[in-house]
Amino acid sequence: MKTLLSLVLSLTLTSFFFSQDLIVLKNGTQINGSILEVTPSLVKFKKTSDGPIYSMNLTDLSSITYKNGTVENFGPAPIVSNSNKPNTPAKPDPKEDEMLIPTKRYGGPRVGLTYISAGTTRTRIAEAFDRADITPFVSQFGWQFETRIFTLESGGAGLVEFIPMIGGLEQGLFLPSASGILGFRAANGIEFGVGPSASLAGFGLVMAAGASFKVGKITFPFNIAFSPNIKKILPDEQVYNPSTGTYDIVPGETTKSGFRLSLLVGFNSRKG
After folding, report:
1. Is 109 helix (H, G, I), strand (E, B) or coil?
2. Three-class SS of residue 86?
3. C-alpha radius of gyration, the chain, whole number
4. CA-based, 20 to 30 A from 203: which of 31, 78, 149, 246?
5. What pLDDT is recorded for position 72?
């Protein structure tokens, strides 16, 4: 009975593995999956039927053995180690690692300086902390959470970022803020984006641009963020004039929130 079960299990496993395509890398790594598409530069495949789609450069491949037995060669066969030498596991190719991960998450600290021009934003902050006014330059400390939502073959990537910050600590203030950015980073590291922001002064729009420099596995970003000035026209008021017994129309004032300009630096490392 045990022999029969072993035979059935062996046939099942053999059928499973032979029903998949076999990808062999130049470093000797073998990947079982289902080939979806082979382009002049990439091969796209799934490891499982309900799993994500992976992409890999053809220059990293040695061969593909399709489930029908057809073999397609792309380069020299992987070097097989001498049987007299101990087998050492192949080191993962960093380029392969970059291609196999569909989405990547990064995060890291941010420090910087924000200039707040004269306007209702600065006035509200001063009133909230019972100050006549505040220094227009305030420090910023926070964290950036970044997710790459897609990566192009050219190296460019779409980004979603969330940046919570605390400002004004050097003035004895506690100014929380948070921004959400939808942006794009080119292969050369230049990036730009736009999104909403929230702070003690209310809600607004933030536009950001900058550049990132990668050293090893650490990325060092330098960003400039700008929140434009918002103008508001208050409604007209009716003021009673006792000398005439009528109401005079007083035109509404025009208020300006003032703009904010921030310079932020820090570093990012991959979180998953």
Report:
1. strand
2. coil
3. 30
4. 149
5. 87
